[in-house]
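Please decode residue identities from the backbone states below.
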């Protein structure tokens, strides 16, 4: 019985994402980005049928295990475009540094503007890096790891949804600039979106995501210590 439930939720997740991806390919509207619509559908399904999250994750955890190999696979576009990386390393480092600082400070500014308590502010500050790092930074600083994970998902999904339109609005056309924007602001989800745009964008986004995580791990606790 447990094996059957596991297979049901694995197939539910795969079929939902496949269907939402086909829907998005036909109607390229920002709110129809597959990562958003798939998550929304599954959340509604679990809520409607009163399925516990732990029950869903009996199957979902096997898909989550693929995240590691998927991240490692990002080394392929990095290797393919290694000359581009070498040529533009200085610009990438500077841009990611600025982006990481802006990401931290924007969260702090919003938290202070809306007079959130310290726990919420410290959970919001590392929103632009990948989930495990954001959770660790938040906990070390006095925030909530759970809230940090939620803010990271919001940042990633919103970046994937609206990033291309913001880049177009500001007339940002260079593939390196696009890659830095997605990787620095929207971590893994943004990198997946960048790969859909082009291999150069995906490669730059993956290295930007990594550099942003390192820089945020160093500077976020320092900045939060002054709050």
């Amino acid at each position: 019985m447990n094996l059957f439930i596991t297979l049901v939720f694995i197939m539910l997740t795969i079929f939902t994402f496949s269907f939402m991806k086909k829907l998005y390919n036909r109607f390229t509207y920002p709110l129809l980005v597959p990562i958003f619509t798939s998550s929304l559908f599954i959340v509604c399904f679990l809520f409607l049928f009163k399925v516990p999250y732990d029950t869903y994750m009996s199957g979902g955890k096997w898909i989550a295990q693929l995240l590691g190999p998927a991240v490692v696979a990002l080394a392929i576009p990095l290797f393919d475009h290694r000359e581009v990386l070498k040529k533009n390393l200085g610009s990438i480092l500077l841009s990611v540094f600025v982006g990481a600082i802006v990401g931290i400070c924007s969260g702090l500014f919003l938290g202070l503007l809306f007079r959130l308590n310290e726990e919420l502010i410290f959970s919001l500050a590392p929103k632009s890096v990948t989930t495990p790092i954001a959770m660790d930074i938040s906990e070390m600083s006095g925030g909530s790891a759970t809230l940090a994970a939620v803010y990271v998902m919001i940042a990633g999904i919103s970046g994937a949804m609206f990033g291309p339109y913001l880049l177009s609005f500001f007339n940002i056309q260079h593939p390196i600039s696009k890659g830095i924007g997605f990787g620095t602001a929207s971590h893994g989800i943004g990198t997946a979106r960048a790969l859909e745009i082009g291999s150069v964008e995906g490669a730059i986004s993956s290295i930007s995501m990594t550099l942003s995580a390192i820089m945020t791990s160093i500077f976020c606790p320092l900045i939060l210590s002054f709050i």
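Observation: The longest helix spans residues 199-224.
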